Model the fold of this input.
Amino acid sequence: MLWVDKYRPKTLDKVMVHEDVAQNLKKLVTEQDCPHLLFYGPSGSGKKTLIMALLRQMFGAAADKVKVENKTWKVDAGSRTIDLELTTLSSTHHVEMNPSDAGFQDRYIVQEIIKEMAKNRPIDTKGKKGFKVLVLNEVDKLSREAQHSLRRTMEKYSASCRLILCCNSSSKVTEAIRSRCLNVRINAPTEEQIVKVLEFIGKKEGLQLPPGFAARVAEKSNRSLRRAILSFETCRVQQYPFTSNQAIPPMDWEEYVSVIASDIMKEQSPKRLFQVRGKLYELLINCIPPEMILKRLLAELLKKLDAELKHEVCHWAAYYEHRMRLGQKAIFHLEAFVAKFMSIYKEFLIATFG
Amino acid sequence: MAPLLQSSQPWVEKYRPKRVKDVAHQDEVVRVLTNTLETTNCPHMLFYGPPGTGKTTTALAIAHQLFGPELYKSRVLELNASDDRGINVVRTKIKDFAAVAVSSSHHQGMRCGVQWKLTPRSRDFFSFVTTLAEPLASRCAKFRFKPLSEEIMSSRISHICQEEGLNLDPEALSTLSSISQGDLRRAITYLQGAARLYGSSISSKDLISVSGVIPEEVVQALFEACKSGNFDLANKEVNNVIAEGYPVSQMLSQLFEIVVGADDISDEQKARICKKFAVTDKCLVDGADEYLQLLDVASNTMRALCNMAEEYS
Done:
């Protein structure tokens, strides 16, 4: 088992990073009830871990017995019926799914399936816990329509159903939904906290940690705990015992992006642009999300640029990323950014050095 | 069905006024409607106004008062136009129901073809009147719901606090009114959230942490970084904001307040900065990346404050 899963805290008491949030959540569910919740925060900050621990707190061990189902639904949409397939993770008390997987048909999921689930209320002999929990992931990727239809559903079935929503950026969730939930912000752990967790894992695994090693892993992780633990484990596989100056392997694709960055800094010509296109395609084929490529590329370029150029380059990065979101083909916009950068940089070089 | 614990009901539902005359602050609307109810001669109605001002509440209250609890189930059909869209729904469901009343909410996205069909004896309410087709709007009596004033909010909230046994100091009360910006539903949701998390005595700091408003010092730090004219410093602050998980749209509106209120910035600079805010807001709505957009805003603000180069093309 990967360390990321092995050392995932199972209960709210064992959470090491967001203790205050965990304690608050615990208080929240002591009356065996909770409002709708919206968790938001950057990736690798522990949203999922907290949600799973919260469910366990509410329903006990029953929440752990999950089964994966691949269900098909027939949704009646006026003149035609639409078949929808979606993978759900469910236990007797909760259902977890990713409605944005359904793409542009996501609003049917929200309308039909959530309603259907919300109507089936679990019956408990003691008459307690008369509600089900629905965990929806990536609500920020839901379309506007789907979010609009979610809001009345939330109110209507609030007696029998609680929603736990999980997303990266709450700006993309409509105000109407945010105002119906208790918002829980999960910040990325600080480097000290990451170091603490890594040392904890090291102790459990019986590893010798040279001083400063955990701090270096944490520094490289960009404040993502998941990434820190993964690269920690990679280091363990690569070389053990650790040496204090052991290199921490960067992600392959990040190295590749920095190669692209130095390529375009070196030469600005159509020929070079053509080569870069090949490399960008390579990254896209390997399923690296285009906005991550763009952000990484910007970060690499910013390291090397003069202060006055930085403003302009970051402006264009934001501009092309927005275009990319509106458009369909990511490669066009990535390439446009590279071409734009080349022209700005060339102009700058000519102006300075003639 | 398992009996529901009283506490599990959201306060928004629990304290929803049951009668038209209990609806807060909408005096004109309430006066007209009470008259209407007495004569039981009732036109089609169109309710519009910002969220959390009592549209749904009023409609439900009218339906309840007109029909009473027994008839309510058979006489009222609640449609959520933003969920069952399409001309078919409106044609068939409403025709089936034509003899009785209809109330439907959240209409703003409906296509025009759908809208003009919606003429049976119905009672409709909408969030945004501007997106409705003219033929439909002209068939209804329109009621505008205005945002609630701070006093009304405070009195409603104090009432709930009394009922729930909460202790809210005056400072927290005014904080709550100001962060919810006239939206009573939001205020009540925050209040319930804070009550669940922090127990019966709630300070204004607790409310801020529940509401997702960004602490003043974080916003100030970013603004100071922009003033300094150092790009790398601003970049670091932006990274920090993203890692802390603060919503960028919220950040923009708080930065906006600082910029507009600042005395040492010229009008021209303010205009430049705010123009960028508007563009960025649209980009965020389109789903653009938060980090890049905030960085762009920071860089633009910095250029405006330090009188650097203007727009790029």
